[in-house]
Amino acid sequence: MRKIVCIALFLCFVLSCSSQPFLTVKGDIPRQHNISPPGSFMYLKEVTTTQMLFVAKNGDAVAIVADSLHTASISFEEGVWNLKVKQPGVAGLHDLDYIAVERESPRYQLAVFEGLNHLFFVRPYAEILRGFEQIPLGTKAVIGYTRYKKKESGFVRFFDSIPDSLLVVTDIGEKVYTYQEFAENLVFDGSYFSMRDIPKSEVMIVWKDFPQKSIYDIYPVIAEVSPKRPLLLIFLDGLGASLLADCEARGWDIYLNKIGLEPMRTVYPATTSAAYRVVGTGNMDGFPRGPLKVFMQLDIEKAYILETSHSFVSSKYPVINHTDQNRNGTTDDEIFASALEYLDQDFDMLLVHFHGIDRGAHARGPDGMFLQRELNAVGGYVEELLKKWQGDYIIFSDHGMHFVATGGNHGRLDNMPMSVDKERYGRAWIEDMVGVIKYSIKEEAAE
Ligand SMILES: [Zn+2]
Ligand SMILES: [Zn+2]
Description:
The chain is an alpha/beta fold. It is 21% helix and 32% strand.
């Protein structure tokens, strides 16, 4: 097993008047990183790495594992960068093009999804290395060094068969492409994938056979319906489609599986605040900077947001907080009681946010076996609300959840370990990205 160690490289350089002494660093690190003497090379020494690939302009490359990096040094002489290795049998490199860094926990990985399966991650370092083929080091070859030659190669092949359309999820939104458009627009810059037609995008997910329902579709429906008729929004925090599917597969008879909730692709990052922004504004503009203000564009008078003691959002409409007055460990019962009262009042929009499933899944993992209490409690509240409320409603969740050592979590790709227990963590990160949705809107609303 490879250890994480600090890079120990020694840099000598001679400044040249005719050439900029910058050397690009690619791989599992922030984009557009350069080594420039003398200061910023110190940064690389601090990076924990498993191996580094040194690539010369002629297409030769040498990968050196962390334990052997102390034998390597880089110099800048007569306008070019060179790699020198104090190791018999391993030649150095003349005129380096760039260095690529492999990290154990990269900040950035691209996830490839198909349907409700998480196929694999593409890491920048792995994608760079895929462009090279290994050549023998010779009889004196030593462990820890691998020599490569550049080969002709296109992008990683994402899928076995070419799909009609693909969903691309970036850190600022989502977009559907035909495969042709996707292939023409995808760019790999050495640290990130981005889309040529979306400036400054970072592609986080490429998704074939994606769920047709999207969290981005909720806000337009709210904006359409609530000015005409009162609309009830039931927000079930942390309810992933996979959790309901697990319950179904076990043959458990739970209310939340009987009301026609469908899988819904949610937002990246798969967090409550990002999802709230999309539900309450229709887009991810400006996320995560600035206060999270929602429903500001609605052209209605009376709207109420029933929340727990912690306010996730602010709005021009009242956000009503609830505390655990009976100290039973949840505010959901207080929120439910409050919702029953608001349903008797005159309103244009009422949002009721239940947190119990998310809390339980963080604590014990997103498995129906561990969450029967929460699923039954929240399901019971939904059942009672729908008995009382005969008007239009939308039920939705903000994200799902995946297992971690301490229970469950959701959020960003970069926190997902690369090697996962397939039985328990098999679908892994896709579980974060698929929530649930049900619209119950009278037909006239479309007029
Ligand atoms: Zn949430
Ligand atoms: Zn959560």
